[in-house]
Amino acid sequence: MRTINPDKLKPVSNRVVIQPDSKEKETKSGIIKPSSVIAQTRQLTGVVLAVGNGRPGEPMIVKKGDVVMFGEHDGTEIGDGLLIMEEHRILVVL
User: I want to staple 67 with a disulfide (CB 3.0 to 4.6 A). Which of 11, 56, 77, 94 is the partner?
Assistant: First the structure.
C-alpha cells in the first residue's frame, strides 16, 4: 500500500480513522512474545486521527485525538497501519 498522510484524510459520514497503538513485544509478566505471535495479534486501542461529519441528525461523539478501544475484527486497514471504521464500532473512549 502507498504512504498515507493522515492530516489530509477526511472520512465521510460516520467514519473515523484510527492509528492503532504499537504492538507490545512483552507481556505484563515479562515474557517476550515471538515475532510470529506479534504479527498475528491486533491492537485493540488507538488514537483517532480524523473524524467524519456524522450522519444527518447524529453528531459524532468521538473527536480527533481521543484514545479509543475497538473490537479485534473491526475496521479496514487503509495503509501505514491506519484503520478506518464506522463510529458505532468503537466500544469506549478511554
Answer: 94
